[in-house]
Amino acid sequence: MPQPTHVLLIRHGQSEGNAERRFGGHTATPLSPRGRRQANATADALKNDSITAIYSSDLARAVETAKPLALATRQPVITTEAFRERSVGVMEGLTFEDAAQKHPEEYAALLRRDFEHVLAGGESYRQLLDRSRNKLDEIIRGHRGGRIAVFSHTGTICILALHLMGALDAPELKPVWISSSNCGITRFELRADGFVRVLTVNDTSHL
Predict the structure, then answer these.
(1) How is residue 95 annotated by DSSP?
(2) What counts of helices (H) and strands (E) characterise the chain?
(3) What confidence score (pLDDT) does residue 124 get?
């Protein structure tokens, strides 16, 4: 049987926006000093994992997190808009408290994990799923038998993890959330016969 394909979904390190409890969305917020330490620790943990490809959201906080692993493995970071966080539209850049005050309906829809709700000026989880899964499926087809590191964001990683598990194929979707800490690693093994193994979820033991 052909070798399985391994997919590692890695959330970016703590950003300045995370530290200030602000919505990041598509905002180009950089890593905080703590985030840079987390990125280095993640690279150190994965440098001997035989990574064959590194992909990243094109947002600064994800690219910054991917770079230490790229240096350690001599692999390029391939960036794509497809792995960006969900755009939260009018709430981008606001603190959670300000967003709840200024945009209570949008904030409530976000907390409900309403899959189809399109945030004002932003996206729905359905739209996030469509853009991110298509790219991930393409990457997996192009790296059969490899070990792929994907640096992304908490919302996108949740959606991609549920996609790989087949949890988003039902006609009716229940609100489910898989949380990722900064630099948490979620690992999948995808076998050629279609069997999917979830090896770790939000592993932060390296931090």
Answers:
(1) B
(2) 7, 6
(3) 93
Q: Pairing state of beta strands 77-80 and 53-57?
A: parallel
Q: Is there a contact between 202 and 181 (Cβ–Cβ < 8 Å)?
A: yes
What pLDDT is stored for residue 173 in this prediction? 73
Q: How far apart are CA 186 and CA 199, in angstroms?
A: 7
| Residue range 171-180: mean pLDDT, rounded | 82
How far is 164 from 160, CA to CA, in rounded Å? 6
pTM of the model as a whole: 0.95
What are 48-63's pLDDT values in tens digits? 999 999 999 999 999 9
Neighbours of 37 (CB within 10 A): 15
Q: Tell me which H or E stretch contains 190.
A: strand 185-190
* Alpha carbon distance 50, 57 (integer Å): 21
Distance CA 177, CA 34 (A): 25
Distance, CA of 168 to CA of 177 (rounded, Å): 12
Catalytic positions are: 12, 85
Per-residue buried b or exposed e for 145-168, using 16+ beta carbons within 10 Å of the residue's own CB: ebbbbbbbbbbbbbbbbbbbeeeb
Q: What whole-number distance in Å separates Cα of residue 134 and Cα of residue 108?
A: 28
